Amino acid sequence: MKYFAMHPEQIVQSLQTDMEKGLDEKEAKRRLKQFGYNELQEREKPSHVLLFFSQFKDFMVIVLLIATLISGLLGEWIDGIAIIAIVFINGILGFFQEYKAEKSLDALKSYTAPVVSVLRNSNWMKIPAKEIVPGDIMKFSAGDRIGADVRLIEANSLEIEESALTGESLPSSKDVNPVYDSNAGLGDLSNMAFMGSLVTRGSGKGIVVGTGMKTAVGKIADLLQTTPMVMTPLQRRLEQLGKILITAALLLTFVVVFAGIIQGRDMYTMFLSGVSLAVAAIPEGLPAIVTIALSLGVQRMIKKNAIVKKLPAVETLGCATVICSDKTGTMTQNKMTVTKLYTNEKMFTVTGEGYNPIGSFFFNNRKIDPINDEHIKKMLQIGMLCNHAQIVRKKGKFILDGDPTEGALIVAAMKAGLSKERLLKDYRVIQEFPFDSRRKMMTMIIENDRKERWAITKGAPDVLMKLSTTVLLNGRRERMTSRTEKKLKLEVEKMAEEALRTIAIAYKRINGYGPFDQSAVEKDLIFLGFYGMIDPPRKEVKEAIEKCKRAGIKTVMITGDHMTTARAIGTQLGIYGKQSQTIDGGQLEKMTVEELEEVVERVSIFARVSPEHKLKIVQALQNKGHIVAMTGDGVNDAPAIKAADIGISMGITGTEVAKEASALVLLDDNFKTIKDAIEEGRNIYENIRKFIRYLLASNVGEILVMLFAILLALPLPLVPVQILWVNLVTDGLPAIALGLDKPEENVMLRKPRHPKEGVFARGLGWKIISRGFLIGLVTLLAFIFVYKQYPNNLPYAQTVAFATLVLAQLIHVFDCRSEQSIFSRNPFENLYLVGAVLSSIILMLVVIYIPTFQPIFHTVPILLKDWLLILGMACIPTFLLAGSFYIRKT
Ligand code: ATP
């Protein structure tokens, strides 16, 4: 169907919809059933069976399986079956770990699914893009991604970037006129907006004519597939490390086997022990556990309203040294209420709270009727008309639909008894130059029944003053002299000092027929006055800023608002003090990045900035070696968000473009959530360090006990199945539980981590080697001690060695929870860990004491008296080093 050649009315008829009311919900549901979800078909994923079998593709595991097969053929079938069973269980665990890791990553993607505005049952509502159906009436504005193929019925300075489809990188301007050229390419269809393309300017409305695979992108599918989750730097480093560890493990195993064979030991036993040791020592589970720790951490962040879109950000969060944050809505509540109004050289106050349109106007503490004052009335009318927000009444409550700044103006006008519907009966909007945070203003052109036209403008007072040549005083236009301007500025300044956000109103009559040119309209204006509105700081932000400070992270406010307002809020929040410097947009504009670098570290407020300036700030800070977190919500914020080390966007007020560019989305737009995410980011990293430490120290212990025994010409302290059991049970559950550990109290008291910091930094390498060495040593000592007592009962000594190794590791796991020592944390804080350790102990006792398992695991029941020895030995590695920590500390 060539919708682009049809008139909107024809489309309405052919798609059975209604431009005023939209579809009704029932019909929308029916269509959803008929046409299916508005989604592109996903690429096929590898099947679960493949994922399962991939667990066994590891070289050493294959060697082990072959070795086991041989042992089975040689008659050692109990060993063979036991080993195969353990390898199989290990495979199942690995499968579930990877499966869970993948699932939680998928879940993340759905959290950030885009939403769109559609008209249903006469109400504009936000729905997930996948629920759009043909016939829906949809609206969008700068920063939105178009959710389906749409035939436009309204376009206000609408520009759309559709390079993915047309290859044209510049945005194309759109209109609503039918295109009759039947050979027109996608790039020529100026009345269509296509799924996946991006609104870069203005706003528009249209009828959905195609969804899902029936859209232009659907036809070339695959194009818009969600980007794959990239590996985090740590994951990449661990992958490299994994290779080194495998080589080291193989080498040591080779030494063990070789030395054993030279000593004349049974070749076959040595071979099987060697391969089992290699399987146990190679930390094949590490990548999956890292992914699980990352994704579990990410789930915890979701609970705190932070959504990580790019996994590497989890790590970078922990390195952040500066947070550059927007003021409005992030540090403040974005619940605007007009409390002051200045016009005709008089300051009025307005009472009332929130969006409840009940309140009065006062002049010099005397109540007045604002409608009787021509100046105030005009200001309120323009404020209400040059506006997209609506105040709707739902269940007795007044709710804002739209921008809070605009909502506050509507509420102020409603308090005076004005109604937008009534105003719109008298005036028709015929053109609009939308709000743009660069221009800091917006203009609408309205006409009345007599075809008289006006430009009505609202925007930042300093901007409008510059564009106004006259000012309305006592109903007459007076020239805007430098004296009047000075006086006005002083009044604006007074409002700003009270932390009020200011917004001015100007207008002018215009002649002629449209469309009008923006630069011709937005000049020679008549300045009318300005509003002051409060936007209180969010209560929790001050404390969050303080916590960041203690964690070595500086907070910088970046705002489009007036400098004085920004300073007043900055002072309340503890960002701005005597030592702080401020820079405004004008100064920034003139500075080069190099010049900014000189001062940037001392600046705590950037005011009246445009989104473009943010990029400069990010670059200057990064050149100074900072790791920068930068927030943003609009289209123009995207470059800075992308360039920042951690780009952050707003879940509520953010545009789709900003969200896509960002690595972290704040569901509640709240600054505190950034702090929480940083804290969680630091914690996740620490948890990963914890289980790397645990796993590797355990592996070192396992290898060394075998190596020492061989070197001392002793019998082997562990049999292959025991080694594999340790690898499965002791190394498995507790490691995952460490990934769930709570943060240490001091995570937010430390300086940020250096992003290039190696995996083994801050003494981790030493801890792994020293603990691993001691675990190996005590296991060997316990073995020797018991073997000397019962030289004819090797299995008994081996069982004691097995129990010592298991217990030493299970005690050591609690030590890994802290960078300091085992005593600095309450072991019962992490109940998962306690559970994992208890189940490992029970499984160990089962293997030792239940007769069915004894022949399989070559175990013998241990006498009670020997448990004392085992326990004593198992405590040594952890307690010895904890002791040395305290001696060093005192
Ligand atoms: P932040 O960057 O902290 O979110 P901000 O929201 O104040 O700051 P902008 O939205 O760019 O930054 O607003 C800058 C200025 O533009 C405001 O101080 C106000 O005077 C003016 N302004 C804001 N919203 C509108 C609007 N909808 N229409 C006209 N002018 C506006």
Describe what you observe in this structure.
Belongs to the cation transport ATPase (P-type) (TC 3.A.3) family. Type IIA subfamily. By secondary structure, the chain is of the alpha+beta class. The protein has 4 domains: 1-228, Calcium-transporting ATPase, cytoplasmic transduction domain A (Distorted Sandwich); 233-301 and 678-889, Calcium-transporting ATPase, transmembrane domain, CATH 1.20.1110; 306-332 and 538-669, HAD superfamily/HAD-like (Rossmann fold, 3-Layer(aba) Sandwich), CATH 3.40.50.1000; 337-534, Calcium-transporting ATPase, cytoplasmic domain N. Strands 10, 11, 12, 13, 16, 17, 18, 19, 20, 21 and 22 form an 11-stranded mixed beta sheet that branches. An 8-stranded mixed beta sheet has the order 8-28-27-26-9-23-25-24, with helices on both faces. The structure holds adenosine-5'-triphosphate (ATP). Adenosine-5'-triphosphate is lined by residues 326-328, 403, 405-406, 435, 437, 440-442, 458-460, 501-503, 559-562.
